[in-house]
Amino acid sequence: MDTPTAQRFSALQADLAEAWLANLPGSDADHSLIALPSHSVAESLLAHYGPRVRALEHRYLVVYLMLHRVPHCELVFLCTQQPDHEVIEYYDSLVAAHTGRSALERFRVVVVDDGTPRSVSAKLLDRPDLLEELRACRRGRLAFVQPWNVTDLEVRVALELGMPMNGTSPELWPLGYKSAGRRMMREAGVPVPYGHEDVRSVDDVVAAVTDIQTARPEARGVVMKLDDSGAGDGNVVVGLRAADGSAADLAEIRERVETLASWYLTDLAAGGVVEELVSAPQFRSPSVQVGISPHGEVTVLASHEQVLGGDSAQVFTGCRFPADRAYAPQIAHHAETVGQALAARGAVGRAGVDFAVAGDDAGRWDCYALEINLRNGGTTHPFAVLRNLVPGAYDVRTGRWVAEADGSSRAYRATDNMVDIAWLGLAPSAVIAAVSDAGLDFDHVAGTGVVLHMLSCLAIDGRFGLTAIGRDEEHADWLLDATREAVDRISRS
């Protein structure tokens, strides 16, 4: 981003605070919100999702659930594929009754697509007609854009629309890279695994491994991470122990790294880290969401247990809320420290901090911060479901959700990966009906139940997502399992 553009964007961002305040529950200020789930990320990360990217945009249709709490908001949702009408009706059925204009009257979808695999923002910038249509939506009111992440493309969109963006300027985007994030967290006094930043070649990797073996002779392995990656897609685990328990030969480690995919080594040249693989009798991978207001205030929003999968158990597949209370206050404290460091550098909007937590047989837990995500992530949309359907607040001291209505607790299981090839081609309406017929729908009186998302992915690979809100962790698990059984029944019939 050149200097004149950065200056124009900074001036525009001065309008964010007032528009952001208008969007808080209880506000009576008329305003517009443009939801922009544009995945402006590295090609390697886009390739990880492939044809599912369009369906991933639809995860954020759950923002619709906010409309009953903010009755003076008009919401425009941008995406590259029109959601099924039944899906919009489904979300409308979940919002509580309110006075004034209905949520459906204050919601519209704008589809921007040109058949290319580019992000929503890139496509939108080629459509002056749609840009003008979005400018007209404002009608002189307060307005801002809520992005998935912010790159130069999103800055150009904001400037074209004349609307500030609730996200961190791309000038600070490198703070979300693995190397810069590790450095900043370490300088802030937040513990990180032993390792090295700014690794760019096979020689650098081998040198880092050599040092880790020397400094941490008991280390079982290391994790290589690409600086500009997400969802664990750029992570590679390299073992440091041979089958007999002896230290692995460095020549074998070099050969392993040299034979990685060519795209990986190309991306590694742009930067990466090598750090000790945290392992223990008990291992967890929690994360913490923080919100940074336009005024620089930092709020710990939620903690989650990440559910990891893939060949090396490094790929995010879902989450549990909240994180284990044995260490939830500890990671919340570290995440708040990270949030304050980000805010001091000018970050705004949503940020996430991933952790590795190691527990011993005596019940002691050591927490290590792994990386910072300066964007929305896999825990953003399920948390939006909870806070809009069961309003309340996360208590960082106890690690629990406290409902504002009666002080009761909630827990949830969420995933974007409820998948079965037998479900390929199932209609979204059929899955919605299956959940309803099984009595699993969200119930406003009980404050529990299942909320579906990403239903357009059923046509791609038989996949959809859900957030199962329960009274406690066991109830949330039961709701998730019952949903799978309900969809199985309709697929068999």
Automatic annotation (TrEMBL):
Entry GO MF terms: ATP binding; metal ion binding
Highest taxon of the lineage: Bacteria
Keyword Transport: no
InterPro entries linked to this entry: ATP-grasp, ATP-grasp_IQCH, IQCH, PGM1_C
SUPFAM superfamilies: Glutathione synthetase ATP-binding domain-like (SSF56059)
Ranges for domain ATP-grasp: 182-398
Keyword line: ATP-binding, Nucleotide-binding
Pfam family, one: ATP-grasp_IQCH
Protein name from the UniProt record: ATP-grasp domain-containing protein
Organism for this UniProt entry: Nocardioides immobilis
Upper taxonomic lineage: Bacteria, Bacillati, Actinomycetota, Actinomycetes, Propionibacteriales
